[in-house]
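[audit] Reproducing an earlier prediction to check determinism. Same input, same settings, fresh worker. If the tokens differ from the archived copy the diff job will pick it up downstream; this log only records the rerun itself.
[audit] input (502 residues):
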Amino acid sequence: MADYVGAIDQGTTSTRFIVFDQAGNIIVEARKAHEQIFPKPGWVEHDPGEIWRNTEEVIATALTQAGLAAHELAAVGITNQRETTVLWDRVSGKPLHNALVWQDTRVDDLVAALARDGGQDRFRAATGLPLASYFSGLKLKWLLDNVPGARARADAGEVLFGTVDSWLVWNLTGGTSNGLHLTDVTNASRTQLMNLATLDWDDELLAAFDVPRAVLPKIAPSSEVYGTATVRALADTRIAGILGDQQAALVGQACFEPGEAKNTYGTGCFVLMNTGAEAVPSTAGLLTTLAYKLGDEAPCYALEGSIAITGALVQWLRDNLGLIENSADIEALAREVDDNGDVYFVPAFSGLYAPHWKASARGCIVGLTRYANRRHLARAALEATAYQTREVLDAMQQDSGIAVTALRADGGMVANELLMQFQSDILAAPVLRPKVAETTALGAAYAAGLAVGYWTDRDDLRRNWALDRQFEPSMAEPERARLYRSWQKAVTRSFDWTSADA
């Protein structure tokens, strides 16, 4: 058997290739950032060509650094920023437009138009999702309607749609020379075009969104040998796992039992709770989504709370305000004060996602006095992540009837111990940080490794999970309640800044 498993982790700000051993340890990692393109307020784009070039580069770089050859990899898995939408030419392989990123809000008017007939939840029973600019279906419709000639060519089967996983698989397996056009159930569930019960594209949804079936990829399980790579660095390596990034983190955290939950602290925050074989409908503003489907097994579902802006807020303080030089500097700056100075930062830059789903909300800072300074702003920015996470977990417990007794945390922000402690304090629950924080890439590796027998079963993966640090709540309940009440008041101040809501 080959010694290792590789994972392509294509995220919102960068692309990485990570190689893991059987114990789930990182052997080598290479990363490269890509450009964030903002053509207009609320519009966010990526260059799919740049993402593919970066993917090829990080694979080659990592394998060279570790002195590994492709045949030493049992398989490669893929995880990706989920709702980001790519449309490309089947013959030339060139994108017809920049990718529309999951944060992009240009389809707000389409959301409002569809919501006028049946409300924001008109498709929730079939898809588990409310109408929102977040999901891929309306982004695809926008591209078909606004790129010259795209709709006619889509009807003729000349162009292909996919989330970023599909774009990568197609290029990895041959591209214009019979590349595979597919996605997995987790990514398909984020398009708002797949039926949660049938796990197939839904004709009524396609008609409502005006999307031709000819443009869509095949829907496959999350763990299966799809084909082999043709690119030089990975020649003949099996591509055997695909998971949207947040579902990948759920798998990487070994949350395989109903009620187990994780939060990934990245550009945004994404809380997922495993609900098992049952798709639990939400009445509290959450998403019902696919957790994973391993080979021929029955699908596993999850409740999800999506928060658009968390780590991106730290980047905004760095890049737009110049408050810090490096993102990691925010912890030290925030530690220079004992509290937030009664300042609250609601980062509704792309509206509010779960549990509010307010497209008309916009970012605001409230509670400012002459006393407040840059240190209080830094602390308020970190605290905003923790408050938003509590909102989602409160909704999750309401929907599921299951108390979250501990939260497994992963992603880039978990290195910030001030944030992790405050998160535990505001939740009144332990926060568990694993030794391997890169659980998104690890989950993709697990999916691929299970498909080829590198790992035998989920018990192998559970045994790999190890605790780095457990943060315990130490805040008194009256202070916790006071802070959270103030946060909830601040959130209401962000509502209805634009007229985008139906």
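[audit] rerun output stored. Observation attached for the diff report: The mean pLDDT is 93.
[audit] end
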